[in-house]
Amino acid sequence: MTLTELLQGLIDSSIETQKTEIKGIALDSRKVKKDFVFIAVAGAMEHGLVYAQKAIENGAFAIVYEAKGSDTFSLDSLNCYKIEVNSLATKLGLIADRFYQSPSKQLDVIGVTGTNGKTTCSQFLLQLIPESGVIGTLGWGEKGVLNKTVNTTPDALDVQQILSGFVDLKKKTVVMEVSSHGLEQGRVNAVNFKGAVFTNLSRDHLDYHGSMSAYLNAKLALFKRPELEFVVVNADDENSQKFLAVTAKQVKRWAFSVNGQEIDSAENITANEVCFSLNGIEFVVCWHGKRAFVQSSIVGDFNLENILAVITVLLAQGFSLETAVNKVNTLAPVIGRMERFGGDEQPFVFVDYAHTPDALEKVLLGLRKYCSQKLHVVFGCGGNRDQGKRAQMGAIAEKLADHVIITDDNPRTENAEKIVSDILTGFGNTNPEVIQNRAKAIQSVIAKASKGDCIVVAGKGHENYQDIQGVKYEFSDQLVVEKALLARVES
């Protein structure tokens, strides 16, 4: 592909472009090689043109740059082909889609959005749909082989490159977590989505969006896509009708509910005769008068919604109810999502990513019903993020748990003691324990807990690091839990 073909329609046709064959495109100058095009966007902190000379040294023959903010740079000194594009960030998806030859049109791409449940639903679908791939919080790749991603939804260039890789691997379906940031920043602008799933909406990312209405509007963008063939919504969420309202009329509508809610314009899948326990979930799924028994080892009341969502997607993809249920009965837990340790002669320990008020409440409410002894929770809040949710999470922990330990999560560059102080403002009549060293907090609660107690270690889930003052230190809740349980046995 030449530069002319890559930028067709994005620049004035009178602009002369050369015929060099493009070998690659990159936003990061460190990834640039010979005959690459370096794309310089205007970021929140700096313009990509800061790294233009480095890109040239690494082999870039051309630089496509964002017009805004470029007037502060001396471009005459750059020995390469230079092309200015207005609103370049919004066009990255189209550029990358062209370069990688529209890979999403060769795949069934299913986008999953919502506050909670995106990762669980995506990973469940990866387990159940043959010849599938995934892009999301835990990484991108195929079952059992995931590569790290910096963001839940990677940048527009990476998304298209990953999708192209899935085409090369002969994948047929790709399940993608689609974040509000990813939608607002145009990271999936040129992705051709066959299906879209809405899990739920609650407070999150208000440090970025500013309000719940802005957060909702960012999510709605996925359901406005004209190419969609089907959508799946959670009928129990008050926002479900808003998602259906922006969906094109020809799109097939599906809805799932754990409370028997039905939407007139949709195919409705409901759960009846539900039985929860610390060993999993059993229920009868109903659709069009058909009934099938689900027996899952997945723990947590809220996971009923996730399992129903997955069944609904399978039905939308053409699987029979019997096949969908047989598949769901084989599901294994997702790392860091109600991941269970201990039991028998040990306390039950659950590691979960719950880092929002709604997620923490759902985890604790679910376990509260079935925990025969004390319910403990260890959690903190991330630094440089929405401060308003800290007191809310403190209040939820005080209300629903018998014993609370406040600890550090990812303080990032914020003062960790200030974060703890913000959480404590949510407490009323009780004084929670504060152990800021996360490992010691987990070790302490496990050492003191009794057989039959339930412990929730919340906030980090799958993460294998702690971010403190800009440095990421190796840290795994799971490893700390396993060592602490072993220490109980050996003592």
Structure, explained:
The structure is a single chain. This protein is an alpha/beta fold and 491 residues long. The chain folds into three domains: 3-98, Udp-n-acetylmuramoylalanyl-d-glutamate--2,6- Diaminopimelate Ligase, Chain: A, domain 1 (3-Layer(aba) Sandwich), CATH 3.40.1390.10; 100-328, Mur-like, catalytic domain (UDP-N-acetylmuramoyl-L-alanine:D-glutamate ligase); 339-490, Protein-Tyrosine Phosphatase, Chain A. It has 16 helices and 23 strands. It has helices spanning 3-6, 52-57, 88-99, 118-128, 156-168, 180-184, 206-209, 212-223, 240-245, 303-316, 321-328, 357-370, 388-400, 416-424, 438-448, 477-490, and strands spanning 24-26, 36-40, 60-66, 81-85, 108-113, 132-136, 139-142, 145-147, 173-177, 193-198, 230-234, 252-257, 267-277, 280-287, 290-296, 339-342, 348-352, 375-379, 403-406, 433-434, 454-458, 465-468, 471-474. It has an eleven-stranded mixed β-sheet, sandwiched between helices. α4 crosses α10 (303-316) and α13 packs across α14.
